[in-house]
Each structure stands twice: as C-alpha cells, then as structure tokens.
Design goal:
elongated, alpha/beta, Cytidine Deaminase, domain 2, 3 domains, six-stranded mixed β-sheet, 18 helices
Length: 508
Amino acid sequence: MDNDHLTIKAAFISVNNKEPIVDLAKMLDVKGIKIYASSGTALFLTNNGIKASNIDQFTGFSSLLGGRIKTLHPAIYGSVLYDKVLDKDNLLGAMPIDPVQLVIVSLYPFEVTSKKMDATMDDLIENIDVGGVSLIRASAKNFKNSIPVVDEIDYPFIMKKIEEGKGFTMAERQQLASKAFRKTSIYDSMISEKLGNDEDILLTLKKEIKLRYGENPHQKGNFYSVTGSNAFKEIEQLHGAELSYNNLIDMDSAVSLINDFDEPFAVVVKHVNPCGAAVDSDIVNALSNALSGDATSAYGSVIAINRKFSSDALSVIKNIFVDCLIAPDFDDNALEKLKHRKKIKIIKYNRSNDDKILPVYRGLRWGILIQDHDDRILKKSELKVVTRIKPSDNDIDDMLFGWKIIKQVRSNGILLIKNKKVVGVGAGQMSRVMSVKIACMKAGEKSKDSVLISDAFFPFKDGIEVAAEYGVKSIIEPGGSIRDAEVIETADKYGMGMMFTGWRRFTH
C-alpha cells in the first residue's frame, strides 16, 4: 500500500510494564510481523512463546554504564527514522535492522518512584528514561513512516487496525505522534518539577469532558484535568445528563466545604454561593436544616453531604428540583429511586489521599493567576473579644462554623448563623451594608439572636446598625478598619458581642 495507508512489516518493542503487551505481540507474531525488542522485553516475549529478536545481537552490547545505555545505537535509530525518500546514501543496504513501522515504548516509572517516601535522589535519577524518550521522539518525528505507541489504552486500536489489514492512515499516525510528543512533554515536566524548578510551572492538561457549551450557550467550553493529579478521579457520575460548565464550578464550591467538616454536614450551593448549610449529629437533619436556610434558592441547586445518602435523606428532597446531588455513597434503594428523576445528576465523591492537590488557577486575558486553596481553619484561640459583652459559647461555636462557610460566599460576603445553620446570605455586593441588608432580609425572623459573619472588616458603622435592627446578637469580623473604634462603639451601643479574627476571608 502507499504511504497514505502504512502497513506494518516490523516492530520494535521496549516496555517497562510487560504483561499488557502479550496479546498485541502475539498478533504481530501470528501476522508474520518481525519483532525487535530490548533485552528484557525480548526475554519476556520469548518466554511467552512469541518470536522476538533481541537487539543486542545487532548493536553488539546488552547495556553499558549499568544499564543507562541500551537502545542508544545508530542501528536502532536508523530503523526508526528511516525514510526512503531521504535515503540518498543508500543507508538501507547497510542497516542491520529492517525499517520498523511500529514502535511501542513505555518509560521508566519516574512518577511512581517520585511518590515513594523513601526515594533518594539516586533513585530518581536512575528512573529518568533517556533511550525510551529518544525512541518515542524519533518515531513521532517520522510518523509518515513509523507509528509511536506510548499508551496501553491504544493497544486494542492497533490490534484492530492490523486485523483489518487496511493499514494506518496519515491522520491516525499523526494523532499517535501528537500523543507521543505529549507523553514526553509530560514526562519532562514531572522531572523538572521534582528536581526543584519552582520558578516556572509547566502545565499539561488532559481533555476529560467536551462540554455542550461554557458558562453561556454562545461560549465554547471543555473540562481538562491537570496531568499528574488524580483529583478528577475523586468524582464518579452515577446518573444524569453530562455535566455543564456551571455544574463543575458549583460542585467545586460544594466539595471545598464538605472537606472541612468531620461531623455530618450538608450544603446547598447556588451560583457558586452556599445558600444553605448545616451540621447535626444526624445527616438527615443536617440536610433538612441546610435546605431550610433558603428553600426558594435551593431550586436547581447543587447539594452535597459528607455521609451516605439514604432513603430518609431522599424524603427530604422529594419535592425539590436538584440539579446535582453529591455524596460519598448512596444506598441501593435511594439510588434506584433517584434514577427515576431524569434531570438530576448523581455524583459519588470520595476524597482521595493524593498529595498533589491542585492550587487555584484563574485565567485572565493576560495570563493565569495561581494561589493556594483557602484551607485555613480558624482557631478559637485566635478570637479576640472587642466589645463589653463577650459572645456566649454557643455564639462562638456558630462563629467557628460560619467562618468555614464564608470562604465560599462571594465578597462582600455576609452570613447569618443560628445553631450551626445558615439562615441568611448576602453575597457579591459592592457595599458591605447592602450584603448585610440582603442577608437579614433573607433570614427574616430567623435573624433574631443570630450570629453575623463578615468576610472582611466593616468600613462604617452602618452595617452594624442594620444588623442590630434585625436582632443580630453577635458579630465576627477580621478587624483592621480605620473606623474599628466607631464600629465597636456601635456594637456596644446595641448590646451586641463582637470578636475579631485578625485575618480576612475574601472570595472574588
């Protein structure tokens, strides 16, 4: 066949993980395709009844420098890079190895080694593959005449194409070459990062989901995971339509909160902001209390709990349209009934122990902002009483609870908390006093004797006056305003307790 449909006559195999190659290698052997292999792979294939030529007999050495040099030889690279159009020197006649059209390589397990607690620098260095990377790049460069295979997931595709006998199209070879270069790029990035490059960040992204659209239907959108992180594996969709751009953002907000609580906790997220959240000794009660925080806004929301979702929990949401439901597990009966709802998306979430937790990335027109996650937990010992009245122990518990929740409320962020339950939210306003008004109006009668959480200091006394009008009992805020004295004086005037944290919790 012509070059547009390349057929395989010879293959070179050098793989670190050998078991998955057996079926493909057997097919190559049966089809009469000559197999060349590195010494370890050749021995493995021979022991499995597969004819394979050890490249040692062509290169004249098995390995040098303790195994560092195995495949770095002109005979091998001549066979991988061969192009008859360029062969003006008649290299083919002098080559001890036939041109190979299929190169199957897996690299030394640098990433696995780097995650071992007892791995030394020497261990890391000896797991940096040189020959394998070079072979991959050589085959990928020569994709017009050679097919690089670097992922076990592609073995079935290669077998299918060989079985069909129609050869590999140029587009198929180019796609595999692109994947090969991506593989070596990722590999080099991992090594660079592990060896200590903290100035530049080399991000490689894997496309996981093609979204129907972005934030709005006129915007294109996709979801990519960051190579080297297994965070995306934490979620498994059990039911429902494909996840949307907005679903994923809301899910991230919800998961960020449930990760902060050990006790039974439930949160309702709408447009990134938590509109309801609660803890309780019983997860069903926590869910019920979270929903009661703002039952109207719960329509079409993302709901997350940190305990198994049961039939009792299902009864709490029976009359509510839920867009996404997140839990670490679902009992069989509840899951079966949930699946009758066509529009709900059911997500099983289990936090992994992967130490590579991604930072926060935010794209701008000019580049990318990167920061750590806001995982700081407020300690009781950090709180400073600044008013004549000291908040009660119950109020302080509500403050500590609310300070966790406020990190997902868009600034200017205000929360009203009562008995570890969100009863009012004011978010995303340009003035803090307006956020206070909105939170209090949403809470209504529930604002009486509640605790107010403010993500940053009060610049004026007007926010305190509004809170007092609605019966707020205690306030927690960072402090640090030039008008702190005036704000504290106003709280004293209305008989309110106030505590400063000493640090703010903005979320833009």
